[in-house]
Design brief:
CATH class: Mainly Beta
Number of helices: 4
Radius of gyration: 15 Å
Distance between the termini: 37 Å
CATH superfamily: Electron Transport, Fmn-binding Protein, Chain A
Largest sheet: 7 strands, antiparallel
Strand content: 25-35%
Number of strands: 7
Helix content: 25-40%
Oligomer: single chain
Length: about 150
């Protein structure tokens, strides 16, 4: 499933957020810029993301479903997140649907004000509701890469 963002998000909001995070070093509410190699061209795709830190691990959740960045991350297996001058390189492992419920709940608690409409449920949803939406929202566990 993929929820296409509107023209305002694509043409105005996301580019503005990328500039604010990448060039000015301001991270609105903890947002980052994800840079991931494109599957076909090899060029870099950059998109604002909202990482989730939970129990000592970092996750990326795709509120809009199987987007280009999701397909690119699946293919590349690695990417980079930026916030100002800080760059964190990582490899990613996709989480199985049956293990997503606590991550989705925590994501909705942290980022629900901005993303709830893309999930159709809130952080107070029961496990059955979260299990029902889990296949529509890819989740990746991020593993930091050491320089070199």
């Amino acid at each position: 499933m993929y929820q296409r963002p509107g023209v305002i998000v694509c043409k105005i909001a996301n580019p503005a957020i990328r500039v604010i995070i990448s060039r000015l070093g301001i991270t609105p509410q903890g947002a980052h810029v994800l840079s991931v190699p494109r599957r076909r061209s090899g060029g870099m795709q950059t998109v604002p993301v909202n990482p989730l830190d939970l129990d000592g691990a970092r996750y990326l959740v795709a509120p809009r479903g199987t987007t280009d960045w999701v397909r690119n991350l699946r293919a590349a297996g690695e990417a980079e997140m930026r916030a100002g001058r800080r760059r964190d390189r990582f490899t990613a492992t996709e989480i199985a649907d049956d293990a997503k419920q606590p991550i989705l709940r925590a994501y909705l608690q942290r980022w629900g004000a901005m993303t709830r409409s893309q999930f159709g449920v809130g952080a107070d949803a029961d496990d059955a509701a979260l299990a029902r939406i889990a296949p529509d929202h890819p989740v990746f566990l991020l593993h930091p890469r050491t320089p070199g």
